[in-house]
Every structure is written in C-alpha cells, then in structure tokens.
Amino acid sequence: MKTIEQIQREQFEWSRRNFGDKPSWQPLMGVVEELGELAHAHLKQHQGIRTNEDHTLNARDAIGDIVIYLMDYCNLHGWDLETITDEVWEKVNKRDWKKNTEDGLEKP
Q1: Which candidate among 23, 29, 62, 107 keeps its CA 20 to 30 Å from the CA of 38?
Q2: Band of the pLDDT at 107, cuts 50, 70, 90?
Q3: Closest C-alpha to 69, from 14, 106, 17, 108
Q4: What is the CATH number of the domain that holds 38?
Q5: Is residue 92 part of a domain?
Q6: Which pairs count as long-range contacts for 98-105, CB under 8 Å and 24+ apart, including other chains?
Q7: 36 closest CA partner among 59, 52, 17, 16
Q8: Cβ contacts of residue 41 below 8 Å, gap of 6+?
Q9: Which among 8, 1, 18, 2 has a CA at the least distance from the CA of 82?
Q10: What is the full DSSP assignment across 4-61?
C-alpha cells in the first residue's frame, strides 16, 4: 500500500500532465463538490431512497476524491498533506471535550 506522501507526489505529476498550471481555487471547488456528493450519499442512505444506487460505494468514492483534491490543493501551495494531518492530529488528540467542555484542553 502506498503512503499518502507517495500518492500526493504521483497526484502532482498526474495533475500537471492532465491540467497544466491552474489556480488553487479549482481543486478547492472540487473538494466542495465532492463533499456535496458525500452528503447526498449519506442522506439518501439515511432516507432509504434511491435504492438503485450504491450509497456506500458513492460515499467511499467521494471521500477518496476529496482527499485527491486536497492533495492537489496542497501541491499548489507546496504543502505536504501527511505532515499537515499529523501536525493537526497532535493538537486534536490532546483535546478531551468530556472533561473540558470550554476548549477541550486540560488546564495546568
């Protein structure tokens, strides 16, 4: 299995080959579009309608597309998605909202 870092490098080359230079708002709009598709799949599954669609498959596809678009956005800014995720997780992981409802952080 490839790492996020490896996929991000491949995504950079693929995007440049297929779309050339582009502004970073384009992949950002892709994230928004795919988030809508994820919400759609979740809602329809919850409602029990459009049973001719595979809502789980659609949700998983949207999640993957969101990550790919985020990689593209990060690449255009020269950022490493794996590093960003690790850094933010280190902050989030320290929060305990059950014990500290104000800000999630333990007081010294």
Answers
A1: 23
A2: confident
A3: 14
A4: 1.10.287
A5: no
A6: none
A7: 59
A8: 53, 55, 56, 58, 59, 62
A9: 8
A10: HHHHHHHHHHHHHHHH-S--THHHHHHHHHHHHHHHHHHHHHHHT--TTS-HHHHHHH
Per DSSP, 102 falls in state T
Q: pLDDT (tens digit, 9 = 90+) per residue, 1-46?
A: 999 999 999 999 999 999 999 999 999 999 999 999 999 999 999 9
pLDDT at 69 exceeding the cut of 90:
yes
* Both structure tokens of 17: 């080959």
Overall number of domains in the chain: 1
Query: What is the per-residue pLDDT for 99?
Result: 93
Name, in order, each residue with C-beta under 8 angstroms of 61's C-beta and a sequence gap of 6 or more.
37
Mean pLDDT of 83-93: 98
Q: Could you tell me if residue 89 is inside a domain? A: no
With tokens 């297929």, the residue in question is 18
In the chain, the amino acid numbered 67 is V
